[in-house]
Design brief:
Blueprint (H helix, E strand, L loop, with lengths): L18 H14 L11 E9 L2 E7 L7 E6 L2 E7 L4 E4 L6 E9 L12 E4 L17 E5 L2 E5 L9 E8 L2 E6 L3 E4 L7 E10 L11 E4 L10 E5 L7 E5 L2 E6 L11 E9 L1 E11 L7 E7 L8 E6 L4 E7 L10 E4 L5 E8 L2 E7 L6 E7 L5 E9 L7 E13 L18 E5 L2 E5 L9 E8 L2 E6 L3 E4 L7 E10 L11 E4 L10 E5 L7 E5 L2 E6 L11 E9 L2 E10 L7 E7 L8 E7 L3 E7 L7 E7 L5 E8 L2 E7 L6 E7 L5 E9 L7 E12 L2
Antiparallel strand pairs: 1-2, 2-5, 3-4, 3-6, 6-7, 8-9, 9-12, 10-11, 10-13, 13-14, 15-18, 16-17, 17-28, 18-27, 19-24, 19-28, 20-21, 20-27, 21-22, 22-23, 24-25, 25-26, 29-30, 30-33, 31-32, 31-34, 34-35, 36-39, 37-38, 38-49, 39-48, 40-45, 40-49, 41-42, 41-48, 42-43, 43-44, 45-46, 46-47
């Protein structure tokens, strides 16, 4: 990394040159010794003392091998390079404080040793604490309602652990001195990722522990009850049950016209039955907001139904739709003096009777009429805000459902088995869903498919295409089976599917290579690649990065312009790569740029061997153009400031298979962070 830094060589590291001539000498030595891949050992015995509050003197022992010189690092910055015979260095002009130093050796072939152990010095006279605590282990989460209780094992530290910082997703949610934390006020039906790190009094932080995922159930309703939004609602609804009291929340335009928009908390019954409830309160989101009891043939927006509901203006209403997708006729209603108000619906054959009461004992019939529905229907609690941009909250209690089964010598009450093997594949803005067939005692009639809590379709077979989805959005899918008697299985475990921000051309693939801390991603729009990746580095014996690639058979090249690059580390890397395999230790050659405005040629010439630098050069600014070309066994790297005039950076001989991978590589050089880089003007030339 010191190549191109002539200011670091003023002490005459090369015996025959100094200044810019010295730089040329070192490069020539490196080229001459290109076949030497044995690095010196890491320097040992590094000591530091502070002659004054503004200076530090370092000394160290010689490295094994034949080092040419040593690099001295303060923190991550290389502040000096000295000749091999000069194993001491004094830095002056410092501000009083704490500094961390390391030393690294190199030889004529530019093989770099590992850095020495860190030595710290406080020019004010005290020894600093630079050791972070150990990473917390054993993280677990327990759900109670809308809260998660996190617990973990205590960390250790050389002096003592001060506390722990908790993270939900990538957001800190506070610190604690103990080994537990309660995270409250979470959302039903949501999944949260948690991780924890430890810190000490000196402000040293451990890495975050491996994250865990915790799911808050859709709602704490009894097992026989379910809840969902019906129709096109503006805001998703929710529900909870505590001490016999339902708290319902829903948007929706109305229970009216030819399609309803509401929240429905329900259970299925077969044959005759009655549902009774007391509406304690309803929020006044509109004078015709409605809450009450409902009997419904299906869960489609245009289903037949009958409802007994109340409004914020103290009206009790009988509403119905007697044929599928028909307009709802004018409703019968009566005024009442005050809440709470009792409502009841009774089904006897095809006759539906709606009644109301002020005390739950004396009932008045509001409407009785004939509505023919299936044997199995849904009965439950309905709520609509009558304002699709606002959520209404209503409180309902004293809910009871009674059934009176009709004579049937062999009723079918067994649901099908839960569908298994649900998979999804993305094609453009569509998702192709497939699942395994369910079994049933009398035969499966079909499957109901749910997207993110909302029923989207029924299917007779075991596949469905869901189209017209939004780029960049994530959807959760699950499927349940039903039979002719309308017995429904439970929904299968949901799967999550993300639609890419833009459709990537079929010729490109994207995957992480090696052990990455966070998975990467790829988006493509108007010729521009947006790459996201973590990874420790593209170096050493095993790479760790994100790779967007195609295949190359024989000779060819790839050219790209790195438009912008996030600074996750000064040696984060993005550029073009030719790679033999997708294994971490694969042979490869790369031309990459770094945020500190360096362009580098690197390669690994044999599988699982240590990677080597070819040469570095400065670039004035981003964007930066890079190119790598394969011709026979010769790999050549180039760079350019404008894409027209190209400068050869390095060329070497490497033997790879006939078919290789060619593409764009990105490593954050910080495995805990995602680096986002934008690349355009990507072209691949295939000469065979």
């Amino acid at each position: 990394p010191f190549i191109g830094r002539s200011d670091l060589f003023k002490d005459g590291i090369h015996p025959n040159a100094s200044g810019n001539e010295l730089l040329a000498g070192v490069i020539q030595d490196a080229i001459t010794a290109a076949d030497d891949n044995q690095a010196p050992s890491a320097p040992s015995g590094v000591t530091a003392n502070a002659p004054s509050t503004t200076s530090v003197t370092l000394t160290w022992s010689a490295s094994n091998g034949t080092p040419t010189g040593y690099e001295i690092y303060r923190g991550e910055e290389c502040v000096k390079v000295v000749a091999a015979a000069n194993r001491s260095f004094t830095e002056t002009g410092l501000t009083p404080g704490i500094y961390n130093y390391q030393v690294r050796a190199f030889d004529r072939a530019l093989n770099l040793s590992a850095k020495s152990a860190v030595v710290s010095i406080n020019t004010n006279g005290s020894t600093p604490d630079i050791d972070p605590p150990s990473i917390p282990g054993g993280l677990s989460g327990t759900v109670s309602g809308t809260s998660v209780t996190l617990t973990w094992n205590a960390s250790t530290d050389n002096i003592g652990v001060t506390g722990y910082e908790m993270r939900r997703g990538n957001t800190s949610i506070g610190t604690t001195s103990g080994t537990s934390k309660v995270d409250s006020g979470l959302s039903y039906g949501s999944t949260y990722a948690y991780s924890v790190r430890a810190f000490d009094a000196a402000g040293n932080y451990s890495d975050y522990c491996t994250s865990i995922s915790v799911i808050i159930p859709d709602s704490p309703l009894p097992d026989t009850w379910e809840s969902r939004d019906i129709g096109a609602v503006g805001i998703a609804g929710s529900q909870s049950l505590s001490l016999g009291e339902f708290t319902l929340s829903a948007s929706g335009s109305d229970i009216y016209t030819n399609a309803d928009n509401l929240g429905f908390t329900y259970k299925a019954i077969s044959g005759d039955g009655t549902i009774t409830a007391r509406v304690k309160s309803i929020q006044n989101t509109h004078e015709w907001a409605k809450c009450g009891v409902m009997i419904r043939e299906t869960l489609e927006a245009g289903s037949k139904h009958a409802s007994m509901v109340v409004t914020p203006r103290n009206r009790v209403v009988f509403a119905r739709r007697s044929s599928t997708n028909a307009n709802t006729p004018g409703a019968e209603y009566k005024s009442f003096s005050s809440f709470p108000m009792w409502v009841k619906l009774q089904r006897s054959g095809d006759t539906i009777t709606g009644s109301y009461s002020t005390d739950g004992s004396t009932w008045t019939v509001l409407k009785e009429m004939t509505i023919t529905m299936n044997e199995t229907v849904y009965v439950g609690l309905a709520l609509t805000s009558h304002n699709n941009s606002k959520t209404n909250t209503a409180i309902v209690d004293s809910v009871s459902v009674t059934t009176q089964k009709q004579d049937n010598p062999d009723p079918d009450i067994e649901p099908p088995a839960v569908p298994g093997g649900l998979t999804a594949s993305v094609s453009g803005s569509s998702v192709n869903l497939k699942w395994n067939a369910s079994t049933d005692n009398k035969g499966v009639a079909g499957y109901e498919i749910r997207r993110s809590g909302t029923s989207i379709a029924n299917a007779a077979g075991t596949s469905l295409v869901d189209s017209g989805l939004s780029a960049g959005a994530t959807y959760n899918y699950s499927v349940r089976a039903f039979d002719a008697a309308k017995n429904y299985s439970e929904y299968c475990s949901p799967i999550s599917v993300t639609i890419p921000n833009s459709v990537v051309p079929d010729v490109w693939s994207n995957s992480d290579v090696g052990s990455v801390g966070q998975p990467g991603s790829l988006a493509f729009s108007a010729g521009e690649f947006t790459l996201k990746a973590s990874g420790t580095d593209i170096f050493s014996t095993a790479d760790s990065f994100g790779y967007t690639y195609s295949t190359l058979n024989g000779d060819g090249s790839i050219t790209a312009r790195v438009k912008s690059m996030e600074y996750t580390n000064e040696w984060a890397k993005c550029g073009v790569m030719i790679r033999e395999t997708l294994d971490a230790g694969s042979i490869h050659a790369s031309v990459v740029v770094a945020p500190l405005k360096k362009v580098s040629f690197q390669r690994r010439t044999s599988t699982n061997a240590g990677a080597k630098w070819g040469i570095n050069a400065d670039i004035p600014s981003f964007p930066a153009w890079v190119r790598i070309k394969r011709q026979g066994n010769t790999i050549t790297g180039y760079y350019s400031s404008n894409g027209d005039v190209w400068i050869e950076l390095y060329s070497c001989t490497m033997t790879m298979k006939q078919q290789v991978y060619i593409g764009l590589a990105l490593s954050s050089h910080n495995n805990a962070r995602i680096n986002t880089t934008v690349v355009d003007n990507v072209t691949v030339s295939r000469e065979n």
